[in-house]
Design goal:
This is MFS transporter. InterPro entries: MFS, MFS_dom, MFS_sugar_transport-like, MFS_trans_sf. It is found in: Cell membrane. It is a multi-pass membrane protein. By secondary structure, this protein is mainly α. About 75% of the residues lie in helices and about 0% in strands. Strand 1 and strand 2 form a beta hairpin. Helix 6 packs antiparallel against helix 7 and helix 15 runs parallel beside helix 17. The chain is globular. About 55% of the residues are buried.
């Protein structure tokens, strides 16, 4: 019995890593295609600047569905279990992404083409809304109390791996002649998501439910409406997670807006800019568990805030390097900012957010809080494209906007409770005092 329980954290972490890698491969190939191809395939009637804006906006549309999906899938996960959510989200993402690769272009179907593109992007967003919260809840509740940040960081490592795969797949595709790229080349990465449908079912159907959820289910203490309990007892935590999740804007600005700005505005080499993303994410795979291990020793807040402050500063250096066309500096700053510094915040939030909530509302709290915050971050590239100026300094408003979102994140994290020493069964349970005594009751 002891051996079996000792293996559960590793099994949950590996399943979360593989599932997240497959899930976010699908999610991020859309972002890459939106930055490089969709403005010509689905919006050719627009002028180049407007076409780019509309194309990037379809990336943000996926984030609109995420808050809605968070309420639905959060309810399912806290009522019926984490496993059911994880199987459903992966299957839905795989099917929606495959169908994007089958869409007709604007020249073939007119306005119907971008309409169908948006609808499938909404399904992608619905899937993503429950993926990370479900995987993070699963790994956190299986993990030893003193290593919760380490094990939950595997979910984000999987996300980074998916982003690497998404970008790497586009490297040979982006090198195709323009005619081949726009006719069939861009479809190949989307068709490859068929693997997700098969692999997702095989991997996640074998997952075991978490012990704390099983105990809650056995005692009949599962709430009929977890969301009601969540907003009655944890509304401050939900609001804090929303604000803290603005840090995700660094990711969307880096992977979508900065790529589009570099290629379409500055005229930098498409393949070189894709390689920046690949190498930064490779470094992140190494940095994430290291930052998480540090957070298990010194606490969540100092590590998280270090990452947020660093990103607010380095985003200026990254855009300046792009604007100057300085490839060595682009690679250096991009890798340091996104691969190392951003990982300090990115690797900690799965444990930090999940530890704010008790078992009965954890998946709902994480899903709703993060997805509202991520929805704002998802539109950061669209806002960036709208507020960008002209000339060699046109990037400055975008960098200021990104830094401002980081500042909101820093304030939210700084005012949160530190939870790295709290036992798992006591997470989200606030001590109260009885009216007639000075005895603390939990």
């Amino acid at each position: 019995m002891t051996t079996q329980r000792a293996g559960k954290p590793r099994q949950a972490a590996v399943a979360a890593w593989i599932g997240s890698a497959l899930e976010y491969y699908d999610f991020f190939i859309y972002g890459t295609a939106a930055a490089l191809v969709f403005n010509k395939v689905f919006f050719p009637a627009s002028d180049p600047a407007t076409g780019t804006l509309l194309s990037v906006a379809t990336f943000g549309v996926g984030y609109v569905a995420r808050p809605v999906g968070a309420f639905l899938l959060g309810h399912v996960g806290d009522r019926l279990g984490r496993k059911k959510v994880l199987v459903f989200t992966l299957m839905l993402m795989g099917v929606a992404t495959f169908l994007v690769g089958c869409l007709p272009t604007y020249d073939q179907a007119g306005v119907l083409a971008p309409v169908m593109l948006v609808l499938l992007r909404l399904l992608q967003g619905l899937s993503a809304s429950g993926e990370q919260a479900g995987a993070n809840s699963m790994t956190l509740e299986h993990a030893p109390a003193h290593r919760r940040a380490y094990y939950t960081s595997f979910t984000l490592s999987g996300t980074q791996a998916g982003q690497i795969l998404a970008t790497a797949v586009f490297l040979p595709v982006a090198a195709l002649p323009e005619e081949a790229l726009l006719s069939w080349g861009w479809r190949v990465p989307f068709w490859a998501s068929f693997v997700v449908v098969v692999a997702g079912y095989v991997i996640r159907r074998r997952l075991e439910e978490t012990p704390v959820f099983e105990r809650q289910k056995a005692t009949g203490s599962v709430a009929r409406l977890p969301v009601a309990v969540l907003f009655r007892e944890h509304w401050r935590d939900v609001l804090r997670v929303v604000q803290a999740s603005f840090i995700a804007s660094v990711s969307t600005i880096f992977t979508v807006y900065a790529l589009s700005y570099a290629v379409n505005t500055v005229g930098l080499d498409r393949s070189s800019m894709l390689w920046v993303g690949v190498l930064a994410n490779v470094v992140a795979l190494l940095a994430l568990p290291l930052w998480a291990t540090l957070a298990d020793r010194v606490g969540r807040k100092p590590v998280f805030i270090t990452g947020s402050v660093g990103c607010a500063v380095l985003v200026f250096a990254y855009f300046a390097a792009i604007s100057a066309g300085n490839y060595p500096m682009i690679f250096l700053v991009g890798i340091v900012m996104f691969g190392v510094v951003y990982s300090a915040a990115n690797g900690i939030w799965p444990a930090f957010y999940g530890e704010m909530f008790k078992t009965g509302v954890r998946l709902s709290g994480m899903a709703i809080g993060t997805q509202i915050g991520f929805a704002i971050a998802g539109f950061a590239p669209t806002i960036g494209a709208a507020i960008a100026g002209t000339g060699t300094t046109g990037w400055i408003p975008v960098a200021v906007f990104t830094a401002a979102l980081c500042a909101v994140n820093i304030a939210a994290v700084a005012t949160a409770r530190e939870t790295f020493r709290v036992p798992t069964e006591d997470l989200g349970v606030r001590p109260t005092r009885t009216p007639d005594t000075d005895v603390t009751v939990t």
